[in-house]
Amino acid sequence: MMKALKIFSAVALSAGLIASANAAIDANKITKRGTVNYSCQGGKRVTVNYGFNAAGVPVTATARVDGKNRVMRYDLGRSDRVSAFFKDARGYRLGAGELTSRNFRKSSVMITSPRNQILFKSCMPR
Hints:
Blueprint: H1 2-22, E1 32-39, E2 45-52, E3 58-65, E4 68-74, E5 83-87, E6 93-97, E7 109-112, E8 118-125
Antiparallel strand pairs: 1-2, 1-8, 2-3, 3-4, 4-5, 5-6, 6-7, 7-8
């Protein structure tokens, strides 16, 4: 009886560990999307589409810049709890204040070119 109880406990523990491993969050899987229209310095306007993972952390920011849709990925190397940075393969960058799935419609942004030229500055949500 005691041996059966030990085996049952081991099986239950293993099943629990497997279930929790399957429930882990995929940091790059987009589970929520949102769009923000911005008014920027100089009368410019830009629309940014954000993608967030299940933890509410941004994964992508997409904007039409220099005539093309730029899909910028979250830059873990530069981002922290205070600032969020995104970068695409060509070097276009979007910088924002703290950005989560809960506050993304309140954050201001700036977009720069690969040559560090400011394309959209002081962009505030409309």
